[in-house]
Sequence to fold (248 residues):
Amino acid sequence: MASLEVKNVCFSYDGKENVIEDINIKLNENELVCLLGVSGCGKTTLFNVISGLNKPNGGQVILDGEDITGKPGKISYMLQKDLLLPYRTIEDNVALPLIIKGEKKKTARQKVGKHFAEFGLEGTEKKYPSELSGGMRQRAALLRTYMFSNGVALLDEPFSALDALTKSDIHRWYLDVMEKIKLSTLFITHDIDEAVLLSDRIYLLSGKPGRITNEIVIDEPKPRSSDFALSEKFLEYKRRIIDELNNK
Fold:
C-alpha cells in the first residue's frame, strides 16, 4: 500500500482559475520521489495541499489509508530555509516537535539525542545555529523534520541554499541516512542533476494550471556509486527530462 497518495487534486486561490489540476501521485514506503518543474507551475501549492495548509477544491490526500485532506499536522513539512530558532540550542531546536506534541523537555532531549550521531551532528547538541555551517544547520533541520514525521516527509528545495561543494557532500550523506532511517520522502527541486541523483522516481509538473506530464523511474540501485553522476546513464536521464520539459 502507498504511504501517501494524492488523488485528482485541484486547487485555486480565487475559486476560479486552478493553479494545479488533476494531480495524481503516489509515494510508496521507503521511497524518495521528486517533484520537478519550472517556477510557477504549482509545486509549492501542491505541497501546501498535501500538508493540509490549503484545502483543495477537489480530490483527496490519503496517508496510510486515512483521508487527511485539509488536515494539517499529519505530515512533516520542511521549507527551503532551515528556520532554526537562533535562541535555542541545536538539541532543543530538534526536540521542538516532540515538545509541541506534549513530551517533557528532558524526555524529548533523550529521544532526539539517539539520532545525533546518525545525522552527523554529534557534538553539536549544546551549540546554537549561528555556530554551525549551512550544511550542518540543514542536517539539524532534517533531523527536526524526521522527529515530527510519521514516516513521511515533504521537503521543499531542502538543499537550494547550499553552495555546489556542500550540496554534493550533503547529497551523498542524505542518500546514506535515508537508507538507514527508512523515511518516505517527497521533495521539490529545480535541479535536474539533484533529482536524478537522489530519486527513485521523478514526477514532471508543468503548464498553467500545473499538471503531472510524466513519471520517470530512475532504474539505478541504491546506494548509488560515487561516479553515477558522471555516467552515460545519468546523462541519458538528464537529456530525457530536459526534452520532456522543453516540449510541454
About this structure: Residues 4-75+151-247 form a domain with the Rossmann fold fold (CATH 3.40.50.300).
